[in-house]
Amino acid sequence: MSARLLRVVKLLAYPAFYLFCLVLFGYLTFPYGRLKDRVIAEVEKRGKPGQRLEIGKLGSYWLSGVELSGVKLHLPADEPPPAGFPGSEFSAPAAPARESVIVIDEAHARVRLLPLLLGRVRLDFWMSAFGGEIKGSAPVGSAKGEVDVEVDHVDVARIEPIGHAIGVPLRGTATGKLVLEAPDGKFSKANGSLDLTLADVTVSDGKTKIQGLIELPPAKLGDLVIAAEAKDGALKVTKLAATGTDLEILGDGKISLREPWGDAIADLVLRFKFTDAYRGKNGTTKSLLGEPGSTKGGLIEEMPATKMKRAKRPDGFYGWHIWGPLRRLKFDPSTADFSGGAAAVPSTTAPAPRRPFSKPGADSPILSGPKRPLLGTPPTKDDAPVAAEPRRDAPRVPPAPAEPALRVPAVPVLAPPPAPAPEATAAPAPEAPPPEPAP
Asked: Domain ranges in the chain?
């Protein structure tokens, strides 16, 4: 029995040694240089035009992963902010837009081996970026499982795309967690939750000029808390609030998840308000935002290119409707109230100004009623009145007999008598000579 067992072990040892050598030498001789070029090509192909990726070093991580260092993602400069964005109230030309750079110090990702044996591909990742850490796991392709992402002490000021998007320096520390369960890998049906806290948020730094014009003192926002719940692909914001000594923010709405993430549709309502303490800090804030305690706004509401006046609410807040795909959000003034966590109410904007009146035409307010043909113009089929369609449940009434039309005899038109010809003026007859006397 022992001899037979020894023979079986010898038979199994050869293929096991072969597999061990195959994995070992494949691991040591894997072409990571070509993999690095392939990753760069794929990222630049699927990104925006002009997007560039730099990878300092790419190597192996354990047995089924890769490790990267010195990663820099160059994003091209965005177009000017859309009309109505809170930073676009200043009509002076801003400084030329510059590209954003996302810097990742270290990162690694690997495929779990146990789920791989079951035919499921699940990826674990970790990165050191923006002064903090980001880690989590996610299924690949149509594999089932949760998307779990944790953010730990990330410095928002180091995320350049955020600062370039809002046009104002932003400081704070982000910590939170996102958990989504996508059935069959479809995020349009995902369920889960989001909890994110931005601690010690400060807007502006007192040195950077907004749109190259005005230097605003730092505005302390405090802790911004964002909480949301996802159900059937709709990420509903249940809390978005911050109450600072200089600035207050309230928000509400939802995000409809899509694949890819950039196609997710946002429908949010955000309102903010500057406190009287911040409005009275110096002369700049008083002139721009208005005097403390006054309901009248400052220059920010009176500039020709501003929409802040239409965003002003009776409670002193400025309301904005943020909507559209995440890759290209739009901002419109809105005075709508929140509706139980869903900002489904479209933005309320002022009507467009009327054009100067030139002459009555098709769009003239004078001709607001039905069009009437001019005198001497033959009627057309559009001028005929349209009879109302009778109701089906209404009793049928026989039409009244038509009365015979009155015939008016034609009166012959007599031609006027010709005008009398002017009489010719007769020449005076010569006078007869007087008769001669008789002898």
From this structure: 77-333
